[in-house]
Amino acid sequence: MMVLGPSAPGGVPFARPLPADAVRDVVPNRVMTWNICNPCGTSNADRAAEIASYAPQVIGLQEACARDVARIRNHLENLYGLVYHVEYGTVLKNWGRCGGLPWNPGGYGQAILSAAPIKDRVNVEYRDGGSEDRGYMAVTTTLDGQEIRVFNTHLAQRRQETYRTDQIAALAEEVARHDRAIALGDFNAVPDAPELTPMWALAGDTDPECRPSPTGTCLPTTDWQSKFDYVFLRGISPLKHHVQPTPYSDHHPLHTDLDLAPAPERQQEAATDVGHEG
To answer: Residue 252 — very low, low, confident or very high, per pLDDT cuts 50/70/90?
Structure first.
């Protein structure tokens, strides 16, 4: 008999050693988005270790089964001491993707994990998901001491531009209601795709070099060297971001550190710095 995977006998997973430069506690101004790939045969212990390497305050997952997310959350706490609240954005029940019995299939869609409490969850299924049901979820949580509205979405597949156009219109309408918001996820579209225009009109990507123009330089976030994954920022400034290829999904984890200070505070700090330089 062979025992495969990261688990010890009895089903207790080992804590995978983290990289030497991994953080040891939650980073309060860090946000991460990751399409964890489903079905891809990846263990939830490995997914948890990938997240623990960066320890973001808020994590948006796509292609997520509710049971898998619950296990990832448990591994993060039990193996790495990282405690998260979780909310789900289930858009369909799918036995093939998420297991369960035929009459009780697992929930599939998005999820948000946050080290701070979560409130005001909204889960919306798009009017037409294309070849598969798709939607967005939104929550209010705290990043670096500031309450922020966070949206997590997974849009229609890459060759279904017409569906994505309607989906982004619905998402953008809700994001526009907030002066400060984060809209992250797998948009299944490259930066200069016409259907992304409403999002670019509201917010910039966390990568300041990435723009919907030939002069934009955008790091790929997928194994096929396309940028499909975004952290759109409205009324929030990026500090630094990182895209890291991983063997555990066909999408790369994207995490970013943010300046969450309200605009008046940033302006006051800038004026103070100028005064000191004088």
So the answer is: very high
Query: In percent, how much of the chain has pLDDT > 70?
Result: 90
pLDDT at 270 over 70: no
The two three-digit tokens of residue 59, written as one number:
């994590």
In sequence order, what DSSP letters do the residues of 173-232 get, joined into one string?
A: HHHTT-SSEEEEEE--S-TT-GGGHHHHHH-EESSTT--SSTT------BTTS---EEEE
**DSSP strand E in 126-177: where?**
135-143, 146-154
The helix (H) or strand (E) run that includes residue 241 is strand 237-243
Task: Name the token pair of 104.
Answer: 């009780």
Indicate the pairing of strand 56-65 with strand 27-35.
parallel
Residue pair 33/229 in contact (Cβ under 8 Å)? The answer is yes
User: What pTM was estimated for this model as a whole?
Assistant: 0.90
Alpha carbon distances (Å) from 14 to 21, 151, 177, 262:
20, 33, 44, 42
Token pair 């997952």 is at which residue? 61
How do residues 123-156 score in pLDDT, each as one tens digit? 999 999 999 999 999 999 999 999 999 999 999 9
